[in-house]
Amino acid sequence: MSDPFAPLGGGASPTPKKTGSAWVSVAPVPDDAPPPPDAHPILGKPTGRWSYSDAGGTLLGFACRFDGPDGKQFRPLTLWRPVTGGRTAWRWEAWPAPRPLYGLDRLAERPKAVVIVTEGEKAADAAGRLLPDHVAVTSPNGSKSAAKADWSALAGRRVVLWPDADAPGGVYAEAVAALVREAGAAFVAVLVPPKSVADGWDAADAEAEGWDRARAEALVAAAKPAPGPTKATSTTAKKRNGGGSDDGAAGGGRRRPPQRDQLMGLCTFVDLWHDEAGDCFASFPVNGHRENWPLASKAFRRWLSVRAYEETGLAPGGQALEDAIRVLEARAYSEGPERVPCLRAGEVDGIAYLDLADASWRTVEIDAEGWRMVDRSPVAFVRSGQMRPLPEPESGYGIEELRRFVNVDRDEDFALLVGWLLAALRSRGPYPILVFSGEQGTGKSTISRLVRSLVDPNAAPIRAVPKDDRDLVVGAVNSHVLALDNLSSVPSWLSDALCRLSTGGGFASRMLHTDREESVMQARRPIILNGIPSLTDRSDLASRAVTVRLRPIAETERRTEQELWEDWNTTAPRVLGALLDACSTGLRRLASVKLERAPRMADFARWVTACEPGLGFEPGSFLAAYAANQADTTETTFEADPVAVAIRDLIRNDYPTGWNGSPTDLLTALNTRTPESVRKLKLWPATAASLGNRIDRVAPVLRSLGFAIDRRHSGTRTISIGPAAR
User: Fold this and answer.
1) What residues contact residue 423 under an 8 Å CB cut-off, 6+ apart?
2) Residue 495 pLDDT > 80, yes or no?
């Protein structure tokens, strides 16, 4: 009979019963080591093999699984060298204690990730796939060998134990909790498996049952702190209390940590981060999905209070809650990554995302191939309390579904409206300002609410004019679309603020209780305006607007609000689906679309032009409608501006070859040729300086009418106005 412990081919040797002192472990494995054997001499080929590596990724050895008639068995496979010298050989023998953890390389690559400790390599791999933001590890040689592993790599780490759901798993969790706490872990918690699982259930079983990331994260977030204080908590308490604790019975016994620290412990597995402006946020699983909220928001406070009540049966005190949030904000800013929070719409790597704002936090993913519903996106979507869910889109319908809800006579107006909707579904501006114009009874307010419901439903879909630009931008920061209802006029400050919101700009104001510090709010938003008079009298606002003229609704066509919205609620999912189809077409074609002539807000025009085939529009039809709208708006703006009209008449009637002179001379010439009734208007400039400012505003309009304008500020200030060279 052959010797079963004789070296195998390739230099491998099974483990003799009593030869421990004859061999020494070789780890890491050198480059000149013999190849490991493919099979065990008795158990045959393994059904699974896991590579153990050090922190640098160098191989240390293997753990192998064998499935046979007697059930599953595990054997380590490691490299050894005879004490007397000679060739290295692979042996079916464990490393000497302390043994390496499985996953040391992943631990080193992600020093701040939460660590999941499972019972076995297969479970660790499954946990790593279910929880990609975490690092999964395990100890070698089964649950009874936890004490022989080297847990020092978990010093300072946040650790969640995911043992098998059985009695041995409970013993393993208790042992590992003590070992990682002794190694200096910052926090240790034990996962509580669902009540309905089978005996021995683990992460691999969860994956096999179809668990997704959100469900696994929710399970981790609900993990219970392991009994006994962590090293970090114990040290903190001693420093704070001079070696004692702060919240327990007299006599020097171990006392409960303060409520603030308890609240902090509940947030151990919350993902903390901040944005470019330094505002701080938290991401955490809720009921199988993941939510993102500002740390200062009511939503996060409510979540933390509920978690505290579930854990302790008591509601947290107000001061403890405030103190915990301040500490979390400091951690989010100093330790958390910087991310871009998005409201309703976002984009990553050319793929667009739209937040449905439903209870499950689902999003729509849109790319060049189409669109689809996803449970999670790479975009950090945040919400305000006023946001409402979008209709769940339906595919297979056309944009014409929208037409019967919009009382417009011209195809051009319909194309402009659809173009604005397509722009508003993107996270990138600039956004044109959508203006609904029409007499009383044309349904301007209703169409404003209806249109907004396709892009950004809100508890207050349309609002009155704010009192100042700060209130305006606060509203814009908390919603994707800004809709102002029933404007009687657009004052100068509002026009300027709307222009900045359309193309993107900052709004600065002094911070409360300070003399020097400013608070700067950045926003770029789609805007809807409606009113009876013309709302685009100012040229800067007009150049950023698309005006849709509504026709009066005949009495035979009128419907009750209930009838209209019941019909719309059925149709809206189909219209949104059609818009998403067009967005997909636009993403596919955008790079190849070139405009022969770039109008104002050329990015908007190019985007809608790219989407045209997905809408069934004729090529170039939108651009033609947009150009005609701009021309019409320019004419309206011109006629409403007495300075522009006066300059045109001056040049045409008195200086057909052009006028040149100082601002003072120009104001004198205009005053002598302008009726007194016009000069008394507030819009009429009283000084040469104010005339110069007005010329800067009306210059685009005059140029569109064929005038050349040149202002020189070096030396003597002069203004030249004349026919444009052909």
Assistant:
1) 429, 431, 432, 526, 604, 607, 608
2) yes
Q: Flag whether pLDDT at 653 surpasses 60.
A: yes
Give residue-wise pLDDT tens across range 260-285.
888 887 887 788 999 988 899 999 88
Gap between the Cα atoms of 621 and 477, Å rounded = 34
**Environment class of residue 170 by beta-carbon count within 10 Å: exposed (0-12), middle (13-18) or buried (19+)?**
middle
Look up residue 310 and give its two tokens. 């579930």
Question: Which residue in 244, 198, 188 sits closest to 220, CA to CA?
Answer: 188
Q: What are phi and psi of 487, to 5 degrees?
A: -75, 135
For the chain, domains (ranges, CATH) are 20-91 (no CATH), 104-226 (3.40.1360.10), 258-334 (no CATH), 346-382 (no CATH), 399-634 (3.40.50.300), 641-723 (1.10.10)
Contact 90, 12 (CB under 8 A): yes
- DSSP letter at 49? E
Asked whether the CA dihedral 267, 268, 272, 278 is positive or negative, the reply is positive
Alpha carbons 410 and 170: distance in angstroms, whole number: 73
What pLDDT digit, counting tens, does each position of 327-367 carry? 999 999 998 899 999 999 999 999 999 999 999 999 999 99
Instruction: Provide the total of helices (H) and of strands (E) in the chain, helices listed first.
Output: 21, 28
Q: What does the pLDDT read at residue 703?
A: 81
Q: Mean pLDDT over residues 398-410, rounded? A: 91
Burial of 25: CB neighbours in 10 Å, binned 0-12, 13-18, 19+: middle
Complete DSSP assignment for 296-344: TSHHHHHHHHHHHHHHHSSPPPHHHHHHHHHHHHHHHHHTSPB--EEES
Other CB atoms within 10 A of residue 684 CB: 18
**Dihedral over alpha carbons 90, 95, 99, 103 (to 10 degrees):** 10
Q: What is the arithmetic mean of pLDDT over 238-254?
A: 40
Q: Outline where 391-481 has alpha helix (H).
A: 411-424, 444-453, 469-477
Strand order in the sheet with 271-274: 271-274, 280-286, 289-294
Residues 627, 599: contact at Cβ < 8 Å? yes
Find all residues with CB under 8 Å of 597, minimum gap 6, and list them. none
* pLDDT tens digits for range 383-395: 988 899 999 999 9
How far is it, in rounded angstroms, from Cα 463 to Cα 421? 19
Nearest by Cα to 462 from 437, 488, 481, 439: 481
Per-residue HEC secondary structure of 519-546 comes to EEEEECCCEEEEECCCCCCCHHHHCCEE
Tokens of 511: 């911070």
215 CA to centre of own chain: 20
**pTM score > 0.85 for this model?**
no
* 3 state SS of 435: strand
Q: What DSSP letter does each residue of 231-297 carry, written as one string?
A: HHHHHHHHHHHTTS-SSS-SSS---PPPHHHHHHHHTTTSEEEE-TT--EEEEEEETTEEEEEETTS
Residues in the chain: 726
Rounded CA separation 341/329 (Å): 16
Could you give the 3-state DSSP secondary structure of residue 200?
Answer: coil
